[in-house]
Amino acid sequence: MDHAADAHRTDLMTITRFVLNEQSKYPESRGDFSILLNHIVLGCKFVCSVVNKAGLAKLIGLAGETNVQGEEQKKLDVLSNEVFIKALVSSGRTCILVSEEDEEATFVEPSRRGRYCVVFDPLDGSSNIDCGVSIGTIFGIYMVKDDHEPTLDDVLQPGKNMLAAGYCMYGSSCTFVLSTGTGVNGFTLDPSLGEFILTHPDIKIPKKGKIYSVNEGNVRNWDGPTAKYVEKCKFPQDGSSAKSLRYIGSMVADVHRTLLYGGIFMYPADKKSPNGKLRVLYEVFPMSFLMEQAGGQAFTGKQRALDLVPTKIHERSPIFLGSHDEVEEIKALYAAEEKKA
């Protein structure tokens, strides 16, 4: 590989170039979506930079303490939230924002309003920051019709109505995964250029997988189908090899691995959390959207995840998502359970 020549390449498919190429397929497009996405990407670059310095900030006494001016240093998740709110409002293309960090939805003032609703978790897995585990930002985008004043109902829609979804993972490299409804593409941040480069075109999840991902610490509270499925993973009756357990506890990292290697990610309902733990709008929906676009499935234990209609912005749901065949097995176990009842 000629590294010297590579250093001067300008024919790389950057995320900006990719989005503009996609835009050119729609002659009626006004470029609003491209501008919005640009602002999300900028927010991710900013958060990536801050996350990379988080350990250092702690070493030199910054994070969560008071600085010389008497101002308290912001925790990373609060800072990330502010970064995305500002980036999204300043794009001039959004009307409603729903963040995991804010109890209420943010309605953008009319003078800066656009046609899009963005739902997001600014820093998912933030409890893992101090030990250097991958964390990330998750987002989903809806479009609002121009014919009315925006209301919460514009956001409380089933996930299948999403226009686009994605996540940015801050780990050993910074990875941005995006779907605009025509497949899934992955981009990696090149720090020397400050640009996301297309490194994983048209991601397809394997039909079957060898990895299951779940918090087994909750096993005694699980329902029958989940317990049976995990039992089958560990002690298969058909002579096949047992599946490997991989659980990071950071949804972005666990889903990213599942997307690339296949398998299943589960956060089932249990006796402690009968409605599951993950939030529908900005965790379950975007990840389910990406899984389906990559050829996988997403199931709540009762229905296709993207058919759920949320009634509150911070509503929770159980979720099983991943390879097509693995989710089929879970569905069969729930169907059998229902027949018994």
Automatic annotation (TrEMBL):
Catalytic activity as recorded in UniProt: beta-D-fructose 1,6-bisphosphate + H2O = beta-D-fructose 6-phosphate + phosphate
Q: What is its EC number?
A: 3.1.3.11
Q: Where is the Fructose-1-6-bisphosphatase class I N-terminal domain?
A: 13-201
- In what residue span(s) does the Fructose-1-6-bisphosphatase class 1 C-terminal domain sit? 205-334
Q: Where in the cell is it found?
A: Cytoplasm
What enzyme class is recorded for this protein?
A: hydrolase
Output a single Gene Ontology CC term carried by this record: cytosol
- Top-level taxonomic group: Eukaryota
Keywords from the named record:
Carbohydrate metabolism, Cytoplasm, Hydrolase, Magnesium, Metal-binding
| UniProt-listed InterPro entries | FBPase_C_dom, FBPase_class-1, FBPase_N, FBPtase, Fructose_bisphosphatase_AS
| GO annotation (BP), single | fructose metabolic process
Major location (coarse): cytoplasm
| Cofactor(s) the protein requires to work | Mg(2+)
* Family named by the database record: Belongs to the FBPase class 1 family.
Q: Please report the name of this protein according to its UniProt entry.
A: Fructose-1,6-bisphosphatase, cytosolic
What is the native source organism of this protein?
Populus euphratica
| Upper classification of the organism | Eukaryota, Viridiplantae, Streptophyta, Embryophyta, Tracheophyta
